């Protein structure tokens, strides 16, 4: 009898310990190598970490490539991954731009990253041959979070990735759930998808709790609700850091929105010396090849 | 779209023919994968088997009525300067260089070969959907400039199996390709 009472007391204490626990999700999307704002984002992240709350730091894709920034484009991918490592990203999904350096470069960058690179709907034909995973499960100070990555089908460099098959996002998420992955307190989809597409996917897969989007460069000052799903996006080019605080009850697996805001960032001067040298090397190689071919 | 690609001349044969024209420096097969391609139609038929034997190396054997055995290898020599990649090709019919400017959904390839049949080529491939790519290219051999347009259709949203057609001045050339991996 005493043993049973002690057991009940332990369960009660554990129950209190596991009841509603706020989780802060910090998120970015479509950074597009905008190094001039990274220092400001880093400062915002540090301020959030200083509060001592459980934090999840995520990115919605298109982080390390942009042809509109030729200087940064030829040298910046490694630096972007290093920065994401340093500030402690937990995971990112692949954007179409993140595939634009080809499969070799993607392997190198994935090896360099200390965070999870996720994409569930660009599926390798042969299992285990991909540098990224479909999903990841994280334990954030007692909260079990399942992260699933998604990518758009727009502007993908398919010819360079013949061994991958693109599948519809709602099908990919549902398959992750069917594999038993739902046994988590929170299901967060990091998707390089426009908001309209996220609304459609959330309608078909209502189990999604949080839907971080990208690709369309839209901003959500307030989360868009589809059923119980919260859909958010920061805009683009590192202009904002998204902050979403949710309260999670592990017993009921229900979540409640506590706060959401887009924290604006500031520009800072950028040292481009390294970029100039590398861009010059690319230009000289291109010119040499052109001369060799044309003459 | 069909009319758009209806320009063309004759195809350039050789060990490094892509399904619808000559290719660049990017090796797209996974290491250890073998690809079989068959071309027929307007030009002489050919069969080509290629295999990616190492990260930077492809080898290929091709056969056609006028040249029953053609062996070659392609070695990528510049890969760290993405978006540009450069490869050298060595074959029984000569040596050459190939380059790729890799711009995501748009890929620009070009190259030059020295040897029995000196040639230059360039092509642009634009990937518009998981199952469709459009190609515009030009081959320059001893004769006049030889432009062509083509379309590649892929099955199931991946690029292992495909059917392609190229429209050239001499007619339509078909190709089939599959990958064993």
Structure overview:
The complex is a heterodimer of chains A (295) and B (181). Chain A is α/β, with parallel strands linked by helices and 295 residues long. Chain A has one domain: 4-Layer Sandwich (Purple Acid Phosphatase, chain A, domain 2). Chain A has helices at 2-17, 38-50, 70-87, 102-112, 169-181, 195-204, 273-294, and strands at residues 21-28, 55-59, 91-93, 116-118, 122-124, 135-140, 143-151, 164-166, 186-192, 210-212, 224-226, 229-232, 240-249, 254-264. The longest helix of chain A is centred in the C-terminal third of the chain and has 22 residues, at 273-294. The radius of gyration of chain A is 21 Å and the shape is globular. Chain B has strands at 17-18, 21-22, 34-41, 46-54, 57-64, 67-78, 84-91, 94-103, 106-115, 119-129, 132-140, 145-154, 162-168, 171-180. A twelve-stranded antiparallel beta barrel of chain B has the order 3-4-5-6-7-8-9-10-11-12-13-14. Chain B has a two-stranded antiparallel sheet with strand order 1-2. In chain B, a hairpin with a 2-residue loop joins β8 (94-103) and β9. Chain B starts with 16 loop residues before the first strand and ends with a strand. The model of chain B is unreliable at 1-16 (pLDDT under 50).
Q: Based on the coordinates given, report the CATH architecture of chain B.
A: Beta Barrel
Radius of gyration of chain A: 21 Å
CATH class of chain B: Mainly Beta
List the quaternary state of the chains: heterodimer
Rg of chain B, Cα atoms, Å:
15 Å
Figure out the total of helices of chain B: 0
Bin the strand percentage of chain B. Answer: over 45%
List the helices and strands and how they pair.
The complex is a heterodimer of chains A (295) and B (181).
Chain A: H1 2-17, E1 21-28, H2 38-50, E2 55-59, H3 70-87, E3 91-93, H4 102-112, E4 116-118, E5 122-124, E6 135-140, E7 143-151, E8 164-166, H5 169-181, E9 186-192, H6 195-204, E10 210-212, E11 224-226, E12 229-232, E13 240-249, E14 254-264, H7 273-294
Helix pairs in contact in A: 3-7
Chain B: E1 17-18, E2 21-22, E3 34-41, E4 46-54, E5 57-64, E6 67-78, E7 84-91, E8 94-103, E9 106-115, E10 119-129, E11 132-140, E12 145-154, E13 162-168, E14 171-180
Antiparallel strand pairs in B: 1-2, 3-4, 3-14, 4-5, 5-6, 6-7, 7-8, 8-9, 9-10, 10-11, 11-12, 12-13, 13-14
């Amino acid at each position: 009898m005493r043993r049973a009472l002690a057991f009940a007391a332990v369960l009660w204490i554990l129950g209190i310990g596991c009841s509603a626990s706020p989780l802060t999700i910090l998120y970015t999307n479509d950074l597009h190598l905008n190094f001039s704002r990274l220092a400001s984002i880093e400062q915002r992240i540090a301020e959030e970490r200083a509060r001592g709350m459980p934090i999840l730091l995520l990115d919605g894709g298109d982080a390390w490539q942009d042809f509109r920034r030729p200087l940064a484009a030829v040298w910046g991918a490694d630096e972007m991954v290093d920065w994401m490592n340093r500030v402690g990203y937990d995971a990112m999904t692949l954007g179409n731009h993140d595939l634009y350096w080809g499969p070799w470069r993607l392997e190198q960058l994935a090896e360099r990253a200390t965070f999870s690179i996720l994409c569930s709907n660009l599926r390798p034909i042969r299992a285990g041959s991909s540098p990224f995973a479909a999903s990841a499960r994280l334990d954030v100070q007692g909260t079990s979070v399942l992260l699933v990555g998604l990518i758009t089908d727009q502007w993908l460099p398919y010819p360079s990735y013949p061994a991958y098959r693109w599948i519809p996002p709602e099908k990919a998420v549902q398959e992750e759930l069917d594999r038993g992955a739902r046994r988590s307190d929170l299901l967060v989809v990091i998707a390089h998808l426009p908001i309209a597409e996220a609304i459609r996917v959330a309608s078909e897969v209502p189990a999604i709790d949080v839907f971080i989007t990208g690709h369309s460069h839209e901003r959500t000052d307030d989360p868009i609700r589809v059923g119980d799903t919260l859909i958010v996006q920061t805009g683009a080019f590192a202009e904002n850091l998204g902050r979403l605080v949710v309260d999670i009850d592990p017993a009921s697996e229900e979540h409640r929105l506590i706060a959401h805001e887009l924290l604006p960032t500031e520009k800072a001067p950028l040292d481009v010396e390294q970029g100039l040298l590398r861009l010059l090397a690319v230009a000289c190689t291109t010119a040499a090849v052109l001369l060799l071919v044309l003459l | 779209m069909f009319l758009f690609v209806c320009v063309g001349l004759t195809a350039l044969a050789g060990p490094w023919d892509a399904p619808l024209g000559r290719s660049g420096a990017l090796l797209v097969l996974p290491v250890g994968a073998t690809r079989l391609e068959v071309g027929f139609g307007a030009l002489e038929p050919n069969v080509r088997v290629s295999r990616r034997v190492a990260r930077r190396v492809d080898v290929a054997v091709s056969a056609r009525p006028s040249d029953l055995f053609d062996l070659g290898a392609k070695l990528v020599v510049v890969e760290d300067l993405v978006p540009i990649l450069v490869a050298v090709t060595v074959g029984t019919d000569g040596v050459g260089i190939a380059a790729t400017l890799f711009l995501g959904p748009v890929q620009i390839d070009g190259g030059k070969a020295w040897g029995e049949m000196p040639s230059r080529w360039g092509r642009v491939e634009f990937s518009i959907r998981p199952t469709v790519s459009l190609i515009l290219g030009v081959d320059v051999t001893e004769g006049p400039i030889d432009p062509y347009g083509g379309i590649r259709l892929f099955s199931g949203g991946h690029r292992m199996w495909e059917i392609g057609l190229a429209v050239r001045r001499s007619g339509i050339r078909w190709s089939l390709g599959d990958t064993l991996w």
